[in-house]
Amino acid sequence: MQFRRGQKIEVFKKSEDDAWEPYMDEFVGGHGIITDPDTAINDPDALIEVSLEDKGTHRLPQDCLRIIEPH
Asked: Against a cut of 0.70, is the pTM above it?
């Protein structure tokens, strides 16, 4: 799945990626917008910058994200 800037996403599960930190558990179920999908890298393992509602901006692994509204 390729993420694009401006897409609405949900953090629908904990990531299996090593980059997942325990504090990120509180993000599960949260919604936000892709702010930097790292399309220049186009690496499915790259972290994606997401602005989460009421949680700020974070870089998250892709396996915990799903698109909730196509852009």
From this structure: yes
